[in-house]
């Protein structure tokens, strides 16, 4: 597939900002962990930049986060906004879920698109999109010493990102506009993730295999 779309800087920065807000807002909920402002900010920055860094490493591209003076300040300011939002909107529990789903969708679209522009075939491009989508969330949970949400029953993080990424690849295959394809990818990923939370969708749990009882 030929390169189709160069990601504008402002689009990448929007994804970084949304990720930064979501990460800090998520981390600030854990009052029992006695995290200071710097700790919450670091989590927010990690979420804001993690998906993009992983994406660029996978496609062997220069790290966008270190190619401009804007990425780190945007991620930091967004993380500070996330902390303020947690204090003001502490009762709006759905905000974290909505921002989480939006972060996954944005990084999924950006990761898949950049992989395709780098010349990767469809299946590896979807793989890159999924890992870019969940990379920030994984790093967030590692920093917070929490079980990785990607592996929780009912999370459907990777499933949502995989479906969104696959839709984007298919749309580009049939010569759909790259920006429109990316928007559809974000919408699909966001929708599946939010619906999974609302209706408790999950994949079957892993269960031990049991042999037949002896006769």
Kindly describe this structure.
This protein is mainly α. It has one domain (9-199). It contains seven helices and no strands. Helix 1 packs parallel to helix 3 (71-88), helix 2 packs across helix 3 (71-88) and helix 5 (122-143) packs antiparallel against helix 6 (157-173).
Helix and strand sequence: HHHHHHH
User: What Rg do the Cα atoms give?
Assistant: 18 Å
Count of domains: 1
Number of strands: 0
Structural class: mainly alpha
SS element count, helices: 7
Percent of sequence in beta strands: under 5%
Q: Please state the average pLDDT score.
A: 85
Given as residue ranges, the uncertain stretches (5+ residues, pLDDT < 50) are none
Q: What level of helicity do the residues show?
A: 55-70%
Reported for the largest beta sheet, the result is: none
Shape: globular
Rounded to the nearest angstrom, the distance between the terminal CA atoms is 58 Å
What descriptors fit this protein?
215 residues; 7 helices; mainly alpha; 67% helix
Short note summarizing the structure:
This protein is 67% helix and 0% strand.
Layout of helices and strands:
Blueprint lengths: L8 H19 L9 H22 L12 H18 L5 H24 L4 H22 L13 H17 L4 H22 L16
Helix pairs in contact: 1-2, 1-3, 1-4, 2-3, 2-4, 2-5, 4-5, 4-6, 4-7, 5-6, 6-7
């Amino acid at each position: 597939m030929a390169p189709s779309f160069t990601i504008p800087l402002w689009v990448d920065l929007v994804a970084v900002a949304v990720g930064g807000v979501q990460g800090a807002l998520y981390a600030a909920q854990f009052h029992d962990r006695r995290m200071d402002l710097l700790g919450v900010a670091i989590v927010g920055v990690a979420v804001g930049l993690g998906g993009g860094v992983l994406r660029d490493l996978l496609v062997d591209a220069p790290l966008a986060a270190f190619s401009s003076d804007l990425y780190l300040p945007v991620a930091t300011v967004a993380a500070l906004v996330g902390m303020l939002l947690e204090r003001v909107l502490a009762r709006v529990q759905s905000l974290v879920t909505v921002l989480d789903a939006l972060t996954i969708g944005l990084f999924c679209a950006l990761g898949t698109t950049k992989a395709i522009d780098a010349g990767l075939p469809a299946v590896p491009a979807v793989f890159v999109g999924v890992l870019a989508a969940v990379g920030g969330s994984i790093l967030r949970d590692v920093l917070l010493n929490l079980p990785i949400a990607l592996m929780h029953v009912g999370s459907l993080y990777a499933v949502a990102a995989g479906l969104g990424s696959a839709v984007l690849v298919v749309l580009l295959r049939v010569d759909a506009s790259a920006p429109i394809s990316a928007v559809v990818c974000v919408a699909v990923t966001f929708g599946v993730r939010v619906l999974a939370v609302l209706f408790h969708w999950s994949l079957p749990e892993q269960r031990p295999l049991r042999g037949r009882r002896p006769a």
